[in-house]
Design a protein that fits this description.
By secondary structure, the chain is mainly α. It is 63% helix and 0% strand. The longest helix is centred in the middle third of the chain and has 15 residues.
Amino acid sequence: MGRTEDAIREAERAVELQPISEDAFFGPIHTFALAEVYVMVGEYDAAIDQLETILSVTCAVSPPLLRADPLWDPLRDGPRFQALLAKYE
């Protein structure tokens, strides 16, 4: 819709309001949403940065989920994405 900067700003704000360090339940959800926004707007390295954070804590996000969800198709063949999934399997 052409509102890339707005989407990123709002997702980043959610992470700021409930970071993982302060909210073990919603923090990862917001961080995951930020990663989704980044991949949707083509900011793949930023998306992987967020996924690294999420996978380093206990939450519902897992390598099998990332492998199955078509949202992550743009990252699927990338060496950094593959290495991240291998690290947390």
